[in-house]
Amino acid sequence: MAAEQSMELHEAYPMTGGDGLYSYVNNSSGQKAVIDSAKELVKRAIVEKLDKEILCSFKTFRIADLGCSVGPNTYFAVQNILEALESKYQQCHQIPEFQVFYSDHSANDFNLLFTSLPQNRNYYAAGVPGSFYGRLFPEASLHFVHCSYAIQWLSGAPKELMDKSSPAWNKSRIHYANSGDEVVRAYKAQYHKDIEQFLQARAQEIVCGGLMVLIFPGVPNGTHHSQSLPSMILELLGSCLMDMARKGIVSEEKVDTLNIPIYGMSPQELKEAVEGNGRFSIEIMEDLPLMIHDHAVSGGQSKIDTQAFVCHMRAGLEGLFKNHFGERILDVLFESYRNKIEENSSIFMSGKAVNSFVLLKRKLSTSKLAS
Ligand SMILES: C[S@@+](CC[C@H](N)C(=O)[O-])C[C@H]1O[C@@H](n2cnc3c(N)ncnc32)[C@H](O)[C@@H]1O
Predict the structure, then answer these.
(1) Which of 157, 283, 285, 347 is the most buried (most CB within 10 A)?
(2) Are 32 and 47 in contact (CB under 8 A)?
(3) Could you tell me the residue ranges of all domains in the chain?
(4) Residue 174 CA to ligand 1 centre (angstroms)
(5) How far is it, in rounded angstroms, from Cα 322 to Cα 330?
(6) Residue nearest to atom 3 of ligand 1 (CA)
(7) Which keywords does UniProt give here (predicted)?
(8) pLDDT value of position 302
């Protein structure tokens, strides 16, 4: 049964909660800039791709933001959707009520999310805990799903990366830019499994004709893994850990057993997954401007604010490192990371990365398959 599927346990490393120095709230302006850059496409999605029947025939229009974290970014994303919907609703006789589901892992700081909800909101808000790699909502209950900067997180790191007897053993590394093909194959296989589960679950939850916006960081089509900027950035963090292992601050074995469950997919890989799933049509697929921290990178001109960049990375990853190595190493690790980023800032020019915007529409013709 669907509700049982959603109980399946997945690794969960939510962004740092609260409003401290390294909190997501204070270190996610980069993700906010991506949401801002997608605003016009969200509007186009609703104006051009949302059918009048979906719009005008439901008394309650239900929106979900998956991997919402703690705000405020999710509130801006929701506001962009609602603004576009409200203008489109002029085509209908009456405006429905809106319900917005904020969804993330149960360990997410939902208290902060709820206490900072916009006061003047014109929708009913609810929180939905759980992994988006399983079912989260009843069948055919959602009209619009939004998911920004979240599906790069896998449900977990592939197990063979930690298996000494496997050709995919990822010794002394925490990601794959400098690894062999076997390691990359293991990451890819995990991604394929996860994205299929994600699409399968959403195909059941979204009404036929309903829309889903996916925004994700990844790599341009055809990029070799050694050129992947998202992975190069993570590899530098791994090299800091290996420096600490050489100094005896952490054990090398501990480094060997950590692999960050993030995969930088290409737009083509997402397209193939959607086509393989068969329940959605791809309505829009475009690149968004590439942001490092909150600066657009174009023509190799951007200068990185190293401190801000490291805080941004720390807000996203410290939960995972704390869980694996304990809290005491965090300051040393991220200080050493700042130095590494400064020394290697050329990777932001040489590495390849892309932010993708994809609009999917739940197909009408396969509706019977979902039930
Ligand atoms: C980088 S944050 C993005 C937050 C927000 N969407 C934004 O754009 O600012 C990624 C979020 O995805 C969530 N996430 C990652 N994997 C998830 C999963 N399997 N199920 C639900 N949420 C997940 C994390 O907990 C985190 O809050």
Answers:
(1) 157
(2) no
(3) 2-370
(4) 20
(5) 7
(6) 149
(7) Magnesium, Metal-binding, Methyltransferase, Transferase
(8) 54
